[in-house]
Design goal:
The structure is a single chain. Helix content is about 35%, strand content about 15%. An eight-stranded parallel beta barrel has the order 1-2-3-4-5-6-7-8, surrounded by six helices. By secondary structure, the protein is of the alpha/beta class. It has one domain: Aldolase class I (TIM Barrel, Alpha-Beta Barrel), CATH 3.20.20.70. Helix 4 packs across helix 6. The longest helix is centred in the last third of the chain and has 18 residues.
Length: about 270
């Protein structure tokens, strides 16, 4: 049985001062749950400060995205060596919002082309992260239209096979995959726990099938993400196929986040 993992994705929220304030509020309480791995993914500007505040805890920090080239004329991009340099141990890749797939759209639809992530760019990012010994948190998930068309499993299968193409299974040991149904991100809707468990179990099977000749991917963890909050975390984390959560909006509330980590710790005891 793998350790539960709870990762916080703060997205484009919190100034450095605000990030420091909420980190100081939850750090000690979260650190008490040492049987749960915890990762905070703040905005890039806040990464050094959050890492500094967490240096005496077991809580790690991670990036929200990465560019696949180590350096060069790519204005505004952040490379994996840069993330490594500020102590990032994890990094989110392939999030639906970088793919231009929003559960709750807050920009004009004709501007969606700004978000152009593909399975191929996700694959390149995973390679860049592994080269710097940073663990990817690979996000996969379907839109509401895809779910209603019965395409959930096939869509996720393609996302996994194309993002992980060309890797050796051993390279991916410790990989984290987060199932995030797009229709549940930022909408308040949550996938039914039984269905979330089914899809997370399917994700695990698909990844291990891709690397069956090498005995699968060791230490693989599959998280659920999509409106995870304290009120549903215990039920979600109690499912046998769910190894923790990728938490968005609820992670911005220090006490709510502590309660979610507590739920993961309680699930470990079952």
């Amino acid at each position: 049985m793998v350790r539960k993992l709870v990762a916080a994705n703060w997205k484009m929220n919190k100034t450095v001062v605000e990030a420091a304030a909420i980190t100081e509020t939850f750090a000690r309480k979260v650190d008490a749950h040492r049987d749960v791995d915890v990762v905070i993914c703040p905005p890039f500007l806040a990464l050094p400060k959050v890492r500094e505040l967490l240096k005496h805890t077991h809580v790690e920090v991670g990036g929200q995205d990465v560019f696949w080239v180590a350096s060069g004329a790519f204005t505004g991009r952040i490379s994996s060596p840069m993330l490594y340099g500020v102590g990032a141990k994890f990094c989110i890749v392939g999030h639906s919002e970088t793919r231009g797939r929003f559960g709750k759209l807050e920009i004009p639809e004709d501007l969606l082309g700004h978000f152009c992530e593909t399975n191929e760019t996700v694959r390149l990012k995973i390679r860049a992260l592994l080269d710097c010994e940073i663990k990817p948190i690979l996000c996969v998930g379907e839109t509401l239209d895809e779910r209603e068309a019965g395409e959930t499993d096939s869509v996720i299968g393609v996302q996994l096979s194309e993002a992980l193409a060309g890797f050796a299974g051993a390279e991916l040991d410790g990989l984290v995959v987060a199932y995030e149904p797009v229709w549940a991100i930022g909408t308040g809707k949550t996938c039914d726990s039984a269905e979330a468990n089914r899809v997370c179990s399917m994700v695990r099977d698909e990844v291990n099938k891709l690397f069956a000749e090498e005995g699968g991917v060791h230490g693989l963890r599959v998280l659920y993400g999509g409106s995870v909050k304290a009120s549903n975390a215990k039920e979600l984390f109690s499912q046998p196929g769910i190894d923790g959560g990728l938490v968005g909006g609820a992670s911005l509330d220090p006490q709510e986040f502590v309660d979610i980590v507590t739920a993961a710790d309680m699930a470990n005891l079952q």
